[in-house]
Amino acid sequence: MRVPLRWLGESVDLPDDATLEHVHAALVSVGFEEESVHTFDLTGPIVVGRVLSREPEPQKNGKTINWCQVDVGESEPRGIVCGAHNFDVGDLVVVTLPGAVLPGPFPIAARKTYGHTSDGMIASARELGLGDEHDGILRFADLGMEPEVGADAIALLGLDDAAVEINVTPDRGYAFSIRGVAREYSHATGATFTDPAGRPAPRSGEGFAVTIQDDAPIRGNVGAHTFVTRVVRGIDATRPTPAWMIARLSLVGVRSISLAVDITNYVMFELGQPLHGYDLARVDGGLTVRRATAGETLVTLDDRTRELDAEDLVIADASGAVGLAGVMGGARTEIRADTTDVLIEAAGFDQVSIARTARRHKLPSEASRRFERGVDPLVAEAAAARAVELLVDLAGGTADTLGSTVVDDRPRPTIALAVDRAAEVTGVDYTDTEVVDALRAIGADVTVDGRRLAVVPPTWRPDLVDDVSLVEEVARIVGYGRIPSILPVAPPGRGLSRSQKAVRRVAAALAADGLVEVLSAPFVAASTQAAFPGIDPEGGRSVTLANPLDADLDLLRRSGLPALVDIARRNIARGLVDVAVYEIARVFLPTADGVLGTDDIDLGGARPSAEVLAAMDAALPAQPNHVSALLTGARVVKQPGTTAEPFGVADALDVARLVAWTVGVELTVAQASHPSLHPGRAAELAVVAADGSRTVVGVAGELLPALTEEADLPRVVAALEIDLDALIAAAPDAVVPEPIVAYPAATQDLSLVVDADVPAGDVLDAVRSGAGSLLEYARIVDDYRGAGMDEGQKSLTFALRFRATDRTLTAAEATEARDGAVRRAGERFGATLRD
Fold first, then answer.
1. What is the largest CA-CA distance in the chain?
2. Over the Cα atoms of the chain, what is R_g?
3. What is the model's pLDDT at position 669?
4. Which residues have a Cβ under 8 Å from the Cβ of 699 and sit 6 or more positions away?
5. CATH fold label, 499-589+624-730
6. Domain map of the chain by residue range?
7. pLDDT of the residue at 17
8. Below-50 pLDDT ranges, the chain
């Protein structure tokens, strides 16, 4: 909300030397956030001038300029070149003299142009910061003004005013008005507040038919609770808007449209009550507030035909809808240049209904912004009276007794508050008087009964619904500075959970290994979900979004790889061809019976039943943390003396082993088939428990070439995905570090011949289990299938390292351990030593 200082000063006593900083500080002290300041950003000399002569001069470029002599109140007129043509001799105009600075900044100086020395500039409204229109220069006659030549135009046009901008939170809609902000400034400083809703006194209206008919209330609330109408006859709709009103509207961020529309906007910003004006001659009968009917359309003021929803609240006459209630009026009854009789509407609508309509039609407006947060139902009559007063004074109209008055004057519920409650919540020892005075200051009716208070909040504060919200008001009005700043002491034994610590260790390990962490959105298309089903190669159900941000991305991911593919493609397209990225994020894996449709959920403001809440909890999909990584390009870049080494499946497996090692788990790797991965270059990652049970926790390999081609990626792209939650669950509660042994190791190589279809990883497991406790390290170093090998067989070579913790091993002990490995491999796979 932007608050012009002079406008604010009409409702609260501002010091003569009040600055923008002072007003901001005062409003911050009562809970508002400081945003920015707004000025017209110009300096003088800017004066009133009278055009003495205007000589058109065609130019070679086809343009015609005017060489003018302008009287600016000095001894001699000034010669000024002007390209506009909407003025003539005798007109009073705004002249910016050399030394002035216009918004931009645009300094004014005498300069030679078109063969003349232009000693200043005749300004337009846009050049002065009074709007975006640029139909020519600004003439005082268009503003209904006849000032003296040489007078200060800045003061005449209200360009010497300035505004502070504050952030208004959703619960404080009353502050979207000069009235509300002035009251808050009064709370902050003690300055005298004069309620602008009290001037002029509201006048009753009768005889105009208004019907509130709502067959589809939202949250049980009828769509309209207040509807006040007043009539002004005989206005001149073509009269200009006064300069002071244009300046104030410009400062609050609204452009001037026409006098009648400007008046309704002005009153809305002044009192917080949105208004709408109708051309009474174009209204067919009375007005009805109702829900839209099936297939009904409305041409709104922006000349767009809108298809209405059955939930939309509309204002209708006998011929149909004439406006979207609280959002935008209709074109059929808008005020035009030939309008003489105006019907003013000041209504109050249900907050949720207006919010839904504004979002449904993508029509956020200043009016809907206020209705969404709640409008004082008792200010409608005052706002209508204020609009009538301005139409009479500025548009030459006559107030009529025709109108209607439907006002929500139901008593507000009483809130019980213990006097000690404020101290209990805030930790401040407020006196009884401070609590009562603070509540009365905000406009509440307070009845004291011993140590308990009965509080009726003011009508403009629908956010005050319980004792805690009243305590917040006491703290705010008495002053936040009274609340002590004491940091709480955390109880012992708290901190990150075991799982959270493990996730952080994995993220740090991957980053230290050279991968870059990325963050992505969890939304995917159905085709992408089918191509990347996740760890489970069979895929499964997906969570479908009822209201996706992008209609094509309507599923929640089951895998983290699609987002990494998009990130890699984007980086490669920008010349970053060596990509190694990872992400730790949740995936969404619904079960077949965990489905809950929107038809099963009670919509509205009421709390769902216990059964519905239980069903909603049961329908939530499993959301495990997955760690996904993608590597493409060069692992080692080409340089003098070194050839490039590309990423491949081995690198994906190394990253997977790093993740498992960081958590404290050992992975077993087996060849697998997966729809996202290259046949023959896909691995299944599993954890083997102490009882021998095997749990698949991830996949790794190279992406299917068809997928990389479709994504414009290099042919070889290594990738992996691991269920990090499952991996952490399989890890021991505490990782016991291996001791550093000072005794030397004994190394041996072992070559075993097995059938070609036996997985090398399974043979490695057999070697490790057969070698016993002396085996410190074992790794496959060769897989040979060539000359010297029988058909259907292969030779696997393992590098073994043996070490004892208490002595130096003998060659015989190392050989015995190796022979144990050979025996176990022979028992399980028929392996024999290669000659």
1. 120
2. 39
3. 86
4. 535, 537, 672, 674, 676, 677, 682, 683, 684, 685, 720, 721
5. BirA Bifunctional Protein; domain 2 (3.30.930)
6. 2-40+162-194, 46-156, 206-406, 415-480, 499-589+624-730, 746-833
7. 86
8. none
